[in-house]
Design brief:
The protein has about 450 residues and is an alpha/beta fold. The protein is built from 12 helices and 19 strands. The strands form 4 sheets. Strands 1, 2, 3, 4, 5, 6, 18 and 19 form an 8-stranded mixed beta sheet that branches. The protein has a 5-stranded parallel beta sheet with strand order 8-17-9-10-13, with helices on one face. Strands 7-14-15-16 form a 4-stranded mixed beta sheet, with no helix packed on it. Helix 2 links the parallel strand 2 and strand 3. The longest helix has 26 residues. The protein is globular.
Length: about 450
C-alpha cells in the first residue's frame, strides 16, 4: 500500500472536475490529484449514447483555457443556421486532450483513472492496488452534480422477460424495423430519441411517446453567443424580466414567457409542469410535433409482453415493439449543500444550466479568496430545476449572483474574458452608436429589478 499527499483532491474528472481543475491550476500553485472511475476524462460523456450532442453551442462548453470545436455554424440538419453542437465523441476527446495537453504538463496534477476514492483511500478498479491519500487543504467532491445517463441508469419500473427493452445507447444497433417504437420519458433523452428516429425516416405514427410530464423548453435560437443572434438572445433576456415584472400569477408568468419567446412547448394545448432546461431548435420543435401518439398517463410501473401499465391506465404493446428507456434524469434535483465547508468543497451550479461555467467561477473564487463565508456569499447556489416553478427560484438566484459579482472588480475582469461566459463577448462587441441593440439592453436593465422583486413575491405565494 502506497501513500501520497496533495493540496487538493478532486473526485471526478467529468465536466465539473475538469473545468474546476483547469482554472484552479492556472490561478494557484497548488498540487492537485484527480481521481475518476472512468478510463478517460469526461465523466458521463464516456457512457453517452453514440448520437448524443450538446444541447448548447460548443463555443461556451468545456473548460476555460481551450476552445471546443471550430466556432462554426451548422449547415445541415435540424440545427442548421445555429452554432455547432459537439458530438459526444468530440466532447470526450476534448476532455482527454485538456488532461494531456494542459493539466498534466503543469507537473502539479496527478491523475488516477479507473480508480475509486473512499475514506482517504484510492483503490484501482483494475489492479486493486490501494493508495492512501492525504488532502492537506480540500477535497473537491464533484459527485454532487453527477449526471445519470441511460446506459448506467436502472429503471424505476418492472420489465417482463422477453420484452425488447434497451437504453438509448442501443438504438443504432437495431438491425430491422420493429412493429413500433415506444419511447419512455419526456425529457432531453426522450427528445433525442424521437429526433433520431425521425431523422432516420421512421414514420411518426410508428412512435409511441410516453410522456409522464410535458416540459417547457428553451428555444436554442436564444442561446447563441454570436453577434448576428444578438436581438434573439438579448431580446429573450429582456422579455424574460419584462414577463417576470408584469406577471400576476405563476400561470400568467409562463403565458408571458411563452408569448415573449423565452420558453416553448411541444403541444400548445397541454400546460407543461416540468422544466429541465432542454433546448430545441425551431426545426426540431416542428419535427417533434409530428409525433401524435403521445401517452400522458403518468409514469410507467411495468412493461409487460402485451401491455404497459402506467399510473393512470394501460396501453397495448407487443414483443415485436422496441421499448427505449429515456427515463433517466440528467442531473437529478437535489437539496443544495454548503459549498465551501471546511475541508470539503462541493461544486454546484452558480448559473442555471451551466455546470462548466459554474465550476470555473468556483475555482477562481477558491484560488482568490481566503474566507469560506465570503466564498459562499459570492457563489450563491442556483438550484437544479425539475418542476416549472423551479424556473422562478433559479432566475432569482441568477440575478442575485450577477449583481454580487459586479461588486468584485477582479472577478468581473475574469468573467469578461472567460470563454464559458458565453454572452459577455457578444455584449461587449456592441457598437455604442447602434441604437437598436442599445435599446434591447436598456429594456433588460430596466426590467431586471422589478422582475426579480415580483418573482420573489410569486415564490412566496
Amino acid at each position: 500500500m502506497g501513500a501520497i499527499e496533495t493540496d487538493y483532491l478532486i473526485i471526478g474528472a467529468g465536466c465539473v472536475g475538469m473545468s474546476f481543475a483547469d482554472v484552479f491550476v492556472d490561478q494557484s500553485d497548488a498540487d492537485v490529484v484527480i481521481v475518476d472511475e472512468h478510463a478517460k476524462p469526461g465523466g458521463h460523456w464516456n457512457d453517452a449514447y453514440p448520437f448524443v450532442t450538446l444541447h448548447q453551442p460548443s463555443s461556451f462548453y468545456g473548460v476555460s483555457s481551450a476552445p471546443l470545436g471550430r466556432d462554426r455554424v451548422d449547415e445541415r440538419g435540424l440545427n442548421a443556421g445555429l452554432g455547432e453542437l459537439a458530438t459526444g465523441a468530440e466532447v470526450a476527446n476534448y476532455f482527454d486532450n485538456v488532461m494531456r495537453d494542459h493539466l498534466l504538463p503543469t507537473g502539479r496534477v496527478r491523475y488516477f483513472p479507473m480508480s475509486r476514492y473512499t475514506d482517504g483511500r484510492i483503490t484501482s478498479l483494475v489492479s486493486g492496488a490501494i493508495t492512501e491519500i492525504t488532502a492537506r487543504t480540500r477535497v473537491v467532491d464533484t459527485t454532487h452534480l453527477k449526471t445519470t445517463v441511460p446506459s448506467t441508469h436502472t429503471p424505476s419500473f418492472d420489465v417482463d422477460d422477453g420484452v425488447r427493452f434497451m437504453p438509448l445507447n442501443s438504438l443504432p444497433s437495431v438491425s430491422e424495423p420493429p412493429a413500433g417504437w415506444v419511447i419512455v420519458g419526456g425529457g432531453k433523452t426522450g427528445i433525442d430519441a424521437c429526433l433520431w428516429l425521425l431523422e432516420h425516416g421512421v414514420d411518426p405514427d410508428a412512435i409511441t411517446w410516453i410522456m409522464p410530464r410535458d416540459g417547457w423548453l428553451i428555444p436554442r435560437e436564444t442561446t447563441q453567443p454570436r453577434l448576428e443572434f444578438f436581438t434573439a438572445v438579448m431580446g429573450a433576456q429582456a422579455a424574460q424580466y419584462e414577463a417576470a415584472a408584469a406577471a400576476t400569477s405563476v400561470d400568467d408568468l409562463f403565458a408571458r414567457l411563452e408569448a415573449g419567446g423565452v420558453l416553448v412547448r411541444i403541444d400548445p394545448s397541454v400546460e407543461p409542469q416540468m422544466f429541465h432546461a432542454a433546448t430545441v431548435s425551431a426545426p426540431e420543435l416542428a419535427a417533434l410535433r409530428t409525433v401524435r401518439n403521445v401517452v400522458r398517463m403518468g409514469r410507467v410501473s411495468r412493461i409487460g409482453t402485451d401491455r404497459i401499465e402506467l399510473r393512470d391506465g394501460t396501453i397495448e404493446t407487443s414483443l415485436a415493439h422496441v421499448h427505449v428507456d429515456c427515463s433517466a434524469s440528467a442531473i437529478p434535483k437535489q437539496e443544495p449543500v454548503t459549498m465551501f465547508d471546511g475541508h470539503v468543497l462541493t461544486p454546484q451550479t452558480v448559473r442555471a444550466y451551466q455546470p462548466a461555467f459554474s465550476a470555473a467561477v468556483i475555482a477562481w473564487v477558491e484560488a482568490n479568496y481566503d474566507n469560506d463565508d465570503t466564498k459562499n456569499e459570492i457563489c450563491g447556489i442556483v438550484p437544479i430545476p425539475n418542476d416549472r416553478t423551479d424556473w422562478i427560484g433559479l432566475t432569482i438566484a441568477n440575478a442575485l449572483n450577477m449583481r454580487r459579482w459586479m461588486a468584485e472588480p477582479e472577478l468581473s475582469a475574469f468573467l469578461a474574458t472567460n470563454r464559458l461566459n458565453g454572452f459577455a463577448a457578444t455584449v461587449a462587441a456592441i457598437d455604442p452608436t447602434d441604437d437598436d441593440k442599445q435599446a434591447v439592453l436598456a429594456r433588460m436593465r430596466e426590467a431586471i429589478v422589478p422582475g426579480v422583486m415580483n418573482l420573489m413575491r410569486l415564490a412566496d405565494e
